[in-house]
Amino acid sequence: SGSGFGLCAPGHSPKMSDSSDYENSDLSDGAQERATAGYAKAALGVPYRMQQVLISWIFVVASVALLLDFLSLQSLVRDIPDGSVTMFDELCNWFGVLSCLCWLLGFVLLAHWLHSVGATPIGLAGCYMKLVASVFFNLQPMTGTMNDPLLGGASGLWWSNLTGILFFHFGNIVSCLDFYLHTPPGADKGRGWLYHGNLPVTGMWVYQAATWFLVASNGMACSFNGASWAPLVQIAEAPVFICQISGALLLLAGSVIYGVWCDAFRNLSNPALA
Fold first, then answer.
1. What DSSP element (H or E) covers 164?
2. Tens digits of per-residue pLDDT, 120-133?
């Protein structure tokens, strides 16, 4: 996600004060109800909120599909030696196609939203880096589905995932830098990570943590076009598996955080037009 998740249209900064009442309260039922109500009310101030709701759901689907892609890949590399490939194994590239198409669609919509709210040049740069990343992401599962020996066979192009995750990771770093240099409307550095106005910042740091793991997993498992010293670590070994699953789960967590920010899981409607 681009750093502009937290930006609001000029003159339309959301009123976040209502959500602060519960930040340091206990976890009683009443406190939880006030927290939910505070988030929901604050989310109404998100500009073009329904577009953010759509983007959040797309990124949730992308993250879940990526998790299934990794689980299927891990199952596949373990089953191939026994010749007992399952249907779940064979869905590996299809999970990848779904995930990567969702990332591409989500970042196209996000770029439109950022331009609509007047995002900073740095925020736009972070988003467009991740849009480019999603294009590279799509090359691997699509070429793997083609199963053309000239394009890497069932594994697809060897370089596209590594290139994509590097663009994605540096895009997240640029987005975090944008938040540091330009505090988004509604955010408050004096409040906690779960203060409603700070959720876009929190979500972006979670995304950056995710891509650290995914850069590591791709770097370790990349074949580097059949180089004698590659891969550094086999896909089925624990370091790659842990980094893959951790990265996918953190992307899902970041997407859920943005969904909470715009109330994507409870309020799927716009207020009635006057």
1. helix 160-181
2. 999 999 999 999 99
The token duo for 18 is: 């209502």
Percentage of the chain with pLDDT > 70? 85
The CA-based angle 39-41-46, given to 5 degrees, is 85
Q: Which residue carries 């929190």 as its tokens? A: 202
Which amino acid, one-letter code, is at 156? G
Contact 46, 261 (CB under 8 A): yes
d(CA 209, CA 162): 17
Q: Tokens standing for 191?
A: 């409040």
Q: What is the pTM of this model?
A: 0.85
pLDDT at 15 over 70: no
Tell me if 128 sits within 8 A of 178, measured CB to CB. no
**ω before 121 within 30° of 0 (cis)?**
no
